[in-house]
Write a structure and sequence with these properties.
Layout: H1 13-16, H2 28-33, H3 47-59, H4 64-77, H5 79-88, H6 90-97, H7 101-107, H8 109-112, E1 119-122, H9 129-134, E2 145-149, H10 165-179, E3 186-192, H11 198-202, H12 216-233, E4 238-242, H13 246-256, E5 262-264, H14 265-285, E6 294-297, H15 301-316, H16 321-326, E7 328-332, E8 335-336, H17 370-377, E9 381-384, H18 394-403, E10 408-411, H19 423-429, E11 435-438, E12 445-447, E13 450-452, E14 455-456, H20 463-473, H21 480-492, H22 510-528, H23 538-545
Parallel strand pairs: 1-3, 2-3, 2-4, 4-5, 6-7, 6-9, 9-10, 10-11, 11-14
Antiparallel strand pairs: 7-8, 12-13
Helix pairs in contact: 3-5, 4-5, 4-7, 5-10, 7-10, 10-20, 14-15, 14-21, 17-18, 20-22, 21-22, 22-23
This protein binds 1,4-dihydronicotinamide adenine dinucleotide (NAI), pyruvic acid and magnesium ion.
Pyruvic acid binds at residues 99, 155, 243, 265-266, 414, 439, 458-459.
Length: 557
Amino acid sequence: MAKSTARTPATPGALADPTLNHGVAFTRPERDELGLTGRLPSGVLTLEQQAQRSYQQLQAQGSDLAKNVYLEQLHDRNETLYFKVLTDNLVDLLPIVYDPTVGEAIEKYSHEYRRPRGVFLSIDDPDGMEKALATLQLGPEDVDLIVCTDAEEILGIGDWGVGGIQISVGKLAVYTAAAGIDPRRVIGVSLDVGTDRESLLKDPLYLGNRHARARGADYDAFIEKYLRTASSMFPGALLHFEDFGPSNARRILETYGRSYRIFNDDMQGTGAITLAAALSAVKVGGVRMRDQKLVVFGAGTAGVGIADQLRDAMIRDGASPEQATAQVWLIDKQGLLTRDMTDLRDFQRPYARDRSEVADWAAEGGAISLPETVRRVGPTILLGTSTVHGAFTREVVEAMAAATERPIVFPLSNPTSRIEAMPDDIIAWSKGKALIATGIPVPPVEHEGVTYRIAQANNALLYPGLGLGTIVSGASTVTADMLLAAAEAVADQVDLTQPGASLLPPVENLRESSAATAAAVLEAAVREGVATSKPADPAQAVRQAMWEPAYGDGAAS
Ligand SMILES: NC(=O)C1=CN([C@@H]2O[C@H](COP(=O)(O)OP(=O)(O)OC[C@H]3O[C@@H](n4cnc5c(N)ncnc54)[C@H](O)[C@@H]3O)[C@@H](O)[C@H]2O)C=CC1
Ligand SMILES: CC(=O)C(=O)O
Ligand SMILES: [Mg+2]
């Protein structure tokens, strides 16, 4: 008997390709033309109706992680529909595709894995890098943005190896939903250099390179090769670096920041969004920027990136560089950082205090604690970038409130399990005086008849607009003035007239806010002479460049 050759026919191309697929929104003529006759139920829905149905399906998922996975699968089926759902429900869904749920998706990547998204570049095959990027079949003019991570310091949850691809994917989703970056012109990249997390190395299902993290010359050569390859294949692309470890993050930016179009979100994006929140807080608090005293708890990539930007803001407001630097105190695992310590990182050194200055401060085992520093310094701003949940205790916040009328308290660590203090506690302990911003989304806090809206000082409120402005300007590098323009544009959008007002624009307005930020960045790039495109009307140029989720002509939409 002849062998049967019958099999289920393959999904026709237009349904299988998420960038082309409109699903049941394909009209009848389109179905005929694309060879889909009989391959879809006969009803034809609009994009709006499809989005309604998807949103209902999403709500039926049992957990935030399940929602994240559902959305990923939707993205794999129909990109336009995915972005329609995401853009129309950004307030609800930002915490699902991004911070904090993305942290869980990263931890469980190898177990929740369905299908790949992005490009995986392996340190064990550096010569395969060009070949891997070439599989995308994109030409030199086809790419605006590449987000890469080596996943050594994902959010505040540390080293997650290849699972870090999901932070690249999440950051890109926010770029598109918040600023209309064209999703067909972006690439997410995992730079898989191994992992030092034992549990991953021992997990039979782990999908990344199964060895310790490469460091030293091999690592440096791999990063340099990535920069050379990505920027020669896609010369127009902005190269976004995310969640690298503290020593590499800064070193890469300092080494290559002037020769490649790179942007480190954890240092520069976080610095700029926190500066924006601080500019608002300073307006409310009344102490001039040049007179602020800043204590940073957790002096790593984000903490010192923010300290640098706040120090520069003090200088712009009239402080001398020496005075501004002396108004910053850094605390890390060793306690308050002092110059006599032998394990300081290069970037911490400028802010380390002279030991003689703190000779009579209380120290436990040689370490000067956060509460002692706050009591002694009387800071006006307290910043948390330590990943230490609960580090801002009642004692610390009360000491801040005793020293300054409107203490500025920014517990910025992500995800929720790492936050230094929750806003309702800070509001209660400071008797409603504290001016607060957090890294995660937090609901408003009621206290003695006032509703306090908590600013989300997450770089997601700034980097999409910064990226859009950089892309539209064709800027050759991301300059300090472009970052400052972005911070000021974000701060300018805030209405501080009501008691308890948020220090940053709400996520509801993120698309509008990103457009305004992008226009300001574009203008700064032109002023600085790094722009290659100089549109006469920056606001209009930015709006025109923003991609909208729609099927375009022909489909029911
Ligand atoms: N809100 C936002 O937009 C952003 C928030 N972050 C958050 O900031 C936190 C830090 O991130 P990175 O700076 O990238 O990490 P990092 O590893 O570079 O910095 C963390 C620093 O905290 C220090 N630290 C750890 N335990 C400590 C302790 N008990 N006392 C004092 N210091 C301690 C570490 O030694 C390190 O220097 C993370 O939770 C991350 O999610 C980071 C970037 C953006
Ligand atoms: C928000 C972000 O970039 C971080 O927590 O690392
Ligand atoms: Mg980050």
